[in-house]
Amino acid sequence: MSTHTVEKPQQCGVSAEDIESLPPSAKLVLKSLHRTDGQTTSELAAEADLAERTIRYALTQLDEMGIIESRYLLSDPQTRKYMLTPDDQRIADLLDR
Question: What share of the chain is helix, strand, coil (3-state, %, to 5)?
Fold first, then answer.
């Protein structure tokens, strides 16, 4: 499966307060991506049993914080896979608090 990375400026320094301020849907998406990185919006919605619109809103919030990144599939340019940035272990530690 070929992918193309969409580069975004990364914000660093996500704190426990930042994670705590996220809505429950964004925390659920974050935990889901920590368990299984590289999921589509549809896959995340099915796993979380939430509407895709809710998942997209959560993904937008996480992207703006620099916690996740997305890649378009070269085999299907309309489909994106979402994954945690390289700081995922530190963020996972913040989720466990």
Answer: 45, 20, 35
Q: Which long-range contacts (CB under 8 A, 24 or more apart) does 68-75 make?
A: 68/30, 68/33, 69/5, 69/6, 69/8, 70/6, 71/3, 71/4, 71/5, 71/6, 71/38, 72/3, 72/4, 72/6, 73/1, 73/2, 73/3, 73/4, 74/2, 74/3, 74/4, 75/1, 75/2
Instruction: Please give the pLDDT value at position 72.
Output: 93
- What DSSP character marks residue 39? B
Give the predicted TM-score (pTM) of the model: 0.79
Structure tokens, 37: 């990185």
- Residue 38 pLDDT: 92
